[in-house]
Each structure stands twice: as C-alpha cells, then as structure tokens.
Amino acid sequence: MTTIAYAHPNIALIKYWGKAPDQGNVPATPSLSVTLDTLVTRTAIETADADRFELDGRPVEDKKLAACLADLRAHYDVPPLVIRSRNNFPTAAGLASSASGFAALVTAIDGHCRLGMDAATRSTFARRASGSAARSIFGGFVALDGPDWAARPLLERADWPLRVVVAVTSAAPKAVASSAGMRLSMASPFYPAWVTSTHEDFRLAVDHVRNRDFDALAELAEHSCLKMHGLMLATRPGLVYWNPVTLECLHRIRALRAAGLPVFCTIDAGPQVKAICLPEAAGRVAAELRAIPGVIEILEIGLGSGASLEAP
Ligand code: 2P0
Q1: pLDDT for 70-126, tens place per residue?
Q2: 84: nearest Cα among 3, 171, 199, 141
Q3: Which of 125, 148, 202, 248 is 20 to 30 A from residue 118's alpha carbon, by CA?
C-alpha cells in the first residue's frame, strides 16, 4: 500500500532566523507566512524492510530526514519505510523545499501509519525537523510563535487572495544552508536586536493581516526581510545570499510601489526574489521583473492550502 501526501512551500513575511537554546529546533523568533499553491512536494510512502529515501528519483542520505524519523519513532510505532519525494521546483535554492518536504513527510507518515495526529501535532514534528516546515501544514496566512511553537492558521487564502510573483535568478543550490547560517548569525552583534524587534514586528503583522492592511504589511514585511539580510551581512563570515539580479529586482519592486502599485518584496536565504502583490498588480509586476536581464524564470503563484493526503 502506498500513501501519498502533498505540501506547498511557504514564504515568510516576518522572518525566522535563529534558534532558541532549547532542544528540539525551537525558533528564536516568531514568524508569519503565506503558503503558496502551484509549487508542490509530493511524497509517497510504503512500508519496507529498511528505510530508503529518494529525492527526485535519486537515492539520498539526509541527516535531517533520519532525525525526523527517529523523532517520530521515539513517540509512535513507525516501521521501516521507503520514502519517495519529488519537488516540481529547484531543491535548496531558496524556494523553501525543506518546508514543503517535511510538511509532506510528516503528513504522509501520519496517514500511512494511522498515527491519528492533529494538525498542531504534525506542525510540531515538522518544526522539529525544519522550522519553516511547521507553517506549511496550514494554508493561507500562517503564524508560528510560542509558547508551544506549533503553527496556526491566521486567515484563509480566500479571505485575502494575494499573489506572489517569484523571480528566479539562479538555479544553483545555496552556498550556506539555513541551519548553519543561523548558528553563525547568533554570534553577530546584531542578533539580540534582531530577536527583540522581531517579536514586536510579528505582533503588528498579525494585526495587519487580520485587518487586510496591505500598505502596513508591505512596509513591515520588507523591513523584516531587509533586517534579516542586515543580520546575515553582519555575521562572520558574512552571509551574502543575493546576486546582482536579486538587487535589481528589489530596486524595481520598490520603484513600482513608490509609483503606487500594491507590491512589496521579500527574499529568503537564497537569491530568488518574491514580489507579494494584490491580484490586480500581478500582471504588471511579472512583466517588469521578466524584463530584467538575468532573470531566468518568472513564476506567478497564488496562495495555497495546507498539507494533505491524496484521497485513497
Ligand atoms: C523563514 N528561512 O522564516 C526563514 C527566512 C529562510 C529565511 O526558515 O534550520 O530551513 O531547518 O529550522 O526552516 C529557512 O530555514 O531552517 C527559513 P531549519 P529552515 O522562512
């Protein structure tokens, strides 16, 4: 019997970067995200004689995946599994493949082994594997904060159907993985200010989402992104995830907003640029970003649903 689960990546508008000293991959900062549609991880699970993991058709060893399985087995009866995972987008290039990957994995194992988890429990196991994965359990607008550090839905996607225009500027894997980068950033002199101020940013952003206040969210989300990259730059060695095209896209998006278009920019631990906009602006934003030399591909994406099992 094969069990199949799907999950989408999410894009943080208030960023998570840094870990609490506690065990279990607890974020140092709350975060707020939108779950995407179109981009998807599909994970198929079968019971087997020994664990085996394939990503995009190739056998791989993955420490985080092995740790996630061990964590589940410390709490539940989970037999050896063959896990086949596929992404319809580049892995490890700043498009949040670990988020959709672990959300799909935990959802698939829960379904396959009939573990009976609720969504908050799946979110907690996904978070312990990869912080951002906690948020991909849910669709629409999602919050991840303490004290329990299970994500929770804030607003359904249909209640504020923003669009996300992704400018892909490189298909190469990122130079420094997020976990390693976060650990380095925690020694930066900027780190305490980052953590303290992000708690306040998060509280305000929750209100802006509930009020559907695009202008206020735009200003705050862009600030959270640039503040995180400021921290990354002020890490030793400096973490520079951008390339020249990334910066061109950022300037273009800010110029469009200055000219009155409802759009703002966010960038994660990679060179891709995500322009978040009201639906009526998406076509113009996509055309403007497509015209920038060096932009490899433009993806125009809506907001998506939470992780789910394929109906048997
Ligand atoms: C985020 N990122 O909030 C931030 C913004 C990247 C930049 O969460 O170490 O792969 O596995 O918990 O979730 C990427 O980090 O890190 C991330 P781990 P994860 O989306």
Answers
A1: 999 999 999 999 999 999 876 545 676 799 999 999 999 999 999 999 999 999 999
A2: 3
A3: 202
- CATH number of the domain that residue 230 is part of: 3.30.70.890
The finding on whether 27 has its CB within 6 A of some atom of ligand 1 is no
State in Å: Cα 178 to ligand 1 middle.
6
User: Are 147 and 182 within one domain?
Assistant: no
Q: Is the CB of residue 179 below 6 angstroms from any atom belonging to ligand 1?
A: yes
Tell me, rounded to whole angstroms, the distance of Cα 85 from its chain centroid: 17
Same-domain pairing of 8 and 130: yes
Indicate if ligand 1 lies below 6 Å from the C-beta of 132.
yes
Question: What's the total number of domains in the chain?
Answer: 2
**127 in ligand 1 pocket by Cβ < 6 Å?**
no
Residue 307 lies in a domain: no
- Verify whether ligand 1 is closer than 6 Å to residue 269 (CB atom): yes
Quick check: helix, strand or coil at residue 249? helix
Question: How far is 289 from 280, CA to CA, in rounded Å?
Answer: 16
Asked whether residue 41 is assigned to any structural domain, the reply reads yes
Task: Return the best residue to mutate from 71, 132, 164, 246 for the ligand 1 pocket (most ligand atoms within 8 A of CB).
Answer: 132
Ligand 1 atom with the shortest distance to the CA of 31: 3
Q: What would the pLDDT profile of 37-68 be if each residue is shown by its tens digit?
A: 999 999 999 999 999 999 999 999 999 999 99
